[in-house]
Amino acid sequence: MTVVRRADRIAYPLVVGPVPVPRRCGLIGTRTREEPMEAVEQPSGLDVLRTTSSPPLPAGGEPRWVCVEEGDVVIATELRHVPAMAGLLEAVLGFAVRSTLRPGGDYVMLDLRVSYVRPVDRAVGEVYARGWVRESRRQVQFAEADVCDAAGDVLATASTTCLVVSPEERTR
Question: Reduced to 3 DSSP states, what percent helix, strand and coil does the chain have, rounded to the nearest 5?
Fold first, then answer.
């Protein structure tokens, strides 16, 4: 290994030839003792959503919670950009799934299917996005969502499959 000086300030090691591999003396096949995690009281997903003053949406605007229950979330917001409807649907699906999680739990959205039911113009005004958990298993949840205008007409629907990661699985 040679050392290259740049502008006479910092030395950068330059490796020429095979890279030296450090020896792992006695580390192969040994187990380290796992220290028990301290019991940190974490809020459930529903508690996190209820303590949030307004839903964090990617579309901006001034969203507000209409309903936050376990497995059922409704958001009212003005749709500023029509392409932002997919982001709104994804967010409300995630909020619905998060509302069912235990403290310390998390989820991964495996897929997202969006169907646009009717054309939307910029003068649509306030819309209501509702997300709900259709079926909940131990590791998988299926959720659905729709966006309606003030007249109650469905503008778009979405569904997702989420992998639920328990706090025990996160520490593995």
Answer: 20, 40, 45
Backbone angles phi, psi at 41, to 5 degrees: -80, 115
Total domains, the chain = 1
Range(s) of the domain holding residue 127 = 45-170
The answer to whether residue 3 is domain-embedded is no
Which tokens is 138 given? Answer: 């131990």
The residues near 136 (Cβ < 8 Å, ≥ 6 apart) are 71, 100, 142
In a domain, 38, yes or no: no
What is the DSSP secondary structure assignment for residue 50, as one 8-state letter? H
pLDDT in tens, 110-142: 999 999 998 887 777 889 999 999 999 989 999
Residue 7 lies inside a defined structural domain of this protein: no
Q: List the structure tokens of 85.
A: 């409807």
Q: Which two tokens stand for residue 162?
A: 């989420």
Which amino acid belongs to residue 21?
V
For position 118, which CATH number holds?
A: 3.10.129.10
The structure's pTM equals: 0.72
Alpha helices for 8-72 (secondary structure H) = 45-51
